[in-house]
Design goal:
Layout: H1 4-10, E1 27-31, E2 34-37, E3 42-45, H2 48-51, H3 60-72, H4 84-96, E4 101-107, H5 110-127, E5 135-139, H6 148-151, E6 172-174, H7 187-200, E7 204-209, E8 213-214, E9 220-221, H8 224-236, E10 240-244, E11 268-271, E12 283-288, H9 289-296, H10 313-328, H11 331-346, E13 355-361, E14 364-369, H12 375-384, E15 387-388, E16 395-398, H13 406-420
Helix pairs in contact: 3-10, 4-10, 5-9, 7-8, 11-13
Length: 423
């Protein structure tokens, strides 16, 4: 049996207190779409381990890729060296993403890929002889990670990082997009953002946003027309556009990348989470030739970043296997099927007294409550029903693995409906 008392007294879990620690559930193994508790109970993982395990757990193709690479080399520094898994992965990413994105920087995690994106934008303008362009414009309800540069671009009021406000770079924030996914975007909807850009563009390096889906800052879906207008404004005022697709990349929104809903290309793109199919930590930041050339013709002559575990061969190998698996399977059909079923089976919650909204896009289902939920009580109720979700605030949402079968998805949505309809 696991020593849960030691865990309780010594191990800090994400966003938890060591004075009043939340319950943690001991996991013995994971297989397919289920995680199995130490007592043998299986739970449908409706979170895909924070949106990363697209293909489920213990996937033979991914295991084989890691095992094969481990026998050659598990790691080698990327400074001055290269290897086949990294080359193949970067080829895949260049081929999959919009055509102007031609350069790839392999990073350690999603937050680091955002740090890299921010440094790219700042160093680009330094190299252009415009060091005064050193601030970003971000969106309210946005979330971009937990490291200091990333935290500074998260919503400073409704986000999770206001405690650090005095230590963070002070960026400029526009209102969260109002037009919903299926709505047009009027000039009035974009007016305040446009005004902020007009007033501040001499000091702005870039606009950073999560395309179409605002994730941990509110699980909001917004209009592709809004994103197109942001791209136009960046072009008009000579700003770079950073698209954070860490949560939305690799099909989650119904497109391979959420930017495709608006048919736009950012100047810089961040990827993570699902990149390795939920097996190893890895991320990537892509940019255009314009950005890369602009950086490398500047004072430093190089991009000033280089993590120790950059381009880890095992992570690259399993990322290649995960992308190949995604492309081999009909992921579009899988995601469309999940979307249709989520819309149908979460619909009844719209009439529940405690529910404010129900929304679905791709393989994302969100139930927004009128009041914040009691996470401990709610999780215990869901676990009794054989489901694992991690609600936050007023939001109870699911992002299941793409391989989930319809009967298991019904099990998941029924657990959500039965639990939330009584709140």
């Amino acid at each position: 049996m696991m020593d849960l008392e030691f865990d309780k007294n010594h191990i800090w879990h994400p966003y938890s207190s060591l004075i009043n620690p939340p319950p943690v559930y001991p996991i013995a193994k994971a297989e397919g779409i289920r995680i199995f508790l130490e007592d043998g109970r299986g739970l449908i993982d409706g979170m895909s381990s924070w949106w990363s395990t697209l293909h489920g757990y213990n996937v033979p193709e991914l295991n084989a890729a890691m095992q094969s690479q481990m026998e050659k080399m598990s790691h080698v520094m990327f400074g001055g060296l290269t290897h086949e898994p990294a080359i193949e992965l970067c080829k895949k990413l260049v081929e999959l993403t919009p055509e102007p994105l031609q350069k790839v920087f392999l990073a350690d995690s999603g937050s680091v890929s955002v740090e890299v994106a921010i440094k790219m934008a700042l160093q680009y303008w330094q190299s252009q002889g415009k060091p005064e362009k050193n601030r970003l414009l971000a969106l309210r309800n946005g979330y971009h990670g937990d490291t200091f540069g990333a935290m500074a671009t998260c919503d400073p009021v409704n986000g999770m990082h206001h405690l650090f406000a005095s230590q963070l770079t002070q960026h400029i924030f526009a209102p969260a997009p109002e037009p919903k996914f299926d709505q047009p975007c009027s000039d009035e909807d974009i007016a305040e953002l446009q005004q902020l850009i007009e007033q501040n563009h001499p000091q702005l390096a870039a606009v950073i946003l999560e395309p179409i889906v605002q994730g941990a800052g509110g699980m909001r879906f917004y209009s592709p027309a809004y994103l197109r207008k942001v791209r136009d404004l960046c072009d008009q005022y000579d700003l770079l556009l950073i698209a954070d697709e860490i949560a939305t990349g690799f099909g989650r929104s119904g497109k391979m990348f959420a930017c495709e809903h608006a048919d736009i290309c950012p100047d810089i793109l961040t990827l993570g989470k699902a990149l390795t199919g939920g097996t190893m930590t890895m991320a990537a930041t892509l940019c255009t030739d314009k950005v890369a050339n602009g950086i490398c013709t500047g004072e430093a002559g190089v991009f000033m970043h280089g993590p120790t575990f950059m381009g880890n061969p095992m992570a690259c190998a399993v990322a290649n296997a995960s992308i190949e698996l995604l492309l081999q399977r009909n992921w579009q059909q899988q995601v469309q099927k999940i979307e249709t079923q989520l819309k149908k089976e979460l619909e009844p919650l719209k009439s529940a007294a405690g529910v404010a909204d129900v929304r679905v896009l791709g393989a994302i289902g969100v139930v927004e409550m009128k009041q914040p939920v009691d996470n401990r009580t709610l999780q215990e109720s869901l676990i009794k029903r054989g489901v694992w979700l991690r609600p936050f605030g007023k939001l109870v949402y699911t992002m299941p693995p793409y391989i989930i079968e319809s009967e298991d998805l019904t099990h998941l949505t029924r657990a959500m409906t039965e639990t939330l309809s009584t709140l």
